[in-house]
Amino acid sequence: MMIQEAIDKAHEGGYHIYGSDGMDTDYGGATNDFSAWTRKDNESSFLVPTEETFLDPQFWQALGRALWWSEACDLSITCVHGHEACRQCHGYSWMDQWHGFIQALADGNTPEAFFAHLTSSQTRSSETTHRYHAGKACPRRACLLLLTAETHQRSQQICEQAARAQQEAHESVRLSALARQRRQSDHVERALWRAYCGVK
Question: Are 64 and 89 in contact (CB under 8 A)?
């Protein structure tokens, strides 16, 4: 399946975009780069980049309906710090696919390569009902993706703490150098004073 076919399928599954002021629109089709929508009030059209579409959970839900993805999947994520957002995806195959898409991009694949594995046998129009069941690798990839994001966030915090500690160490070294210079200067002044007093 190509990107424009995937967006067409999502539209069949109920995916819809409204104008910025909430005005209803008609879907005009898609390319690999954009989808076109026409406002019903003034017939003006606008383009939406596919990158924005792929960030929209409504797109993935609608695509899942059109391709008969099963509602339930075995994806269940528990975050160490108890973030509720991490638990929202439990039981939804479309969320598993969305995470699989993100992982595919993270692995260096293109959106075209990801959508190419979605075949026409997974669509509503097939004669027999085909249910898509997430493979065992997909939940693992999704879990790894979230764990990687959490690890990355934690490593950023550690790096920030290390940078602050390094700044504090530099400041401490600078202050120590100033104190040493002051002591040396005081020592020289005392020696000069003693020498001056001894000469007199």
Answer: no
pTM of the entire structure? Answer: 0.51
- Residues facing residue 45 across a β-bridge: 38
Spatial distance between the Cα atoms of 10 and 7, rounded to a whole number of angstroms: 5
Q: How confident is the model over 68-119, as pLDDT tens digits?
A: 876 544 444 444 444 444 444 444 678 888 888 888 888 888 898 888 887 6
Q: Residue 128: CB partners within 8 Å, gap ≥ 6?
A: none
pLDDT digits (tens, 9 = 90+) for 174-190: 998 898 888 888 888 88
- What's the chain's Rg over C-alpha atoms? 31
- 108 by DSSP, 3-state: which? coil
Burial 28-40 (b: 16+ CB within 10 A, else e): eebeeebbebebe
Distance between CA atoms of residues 126 and 34, nearest Å: 27
Closest CA to 121 of 133, 113, 129: 129
CA angle 61, 64, 69 (to 5 degrees): 135
Q: List CB contacts of 35: < 8 A, sequence separation 6 or more.
A: 7, 17, 27, 28, 29, 47, 48, 50, 53
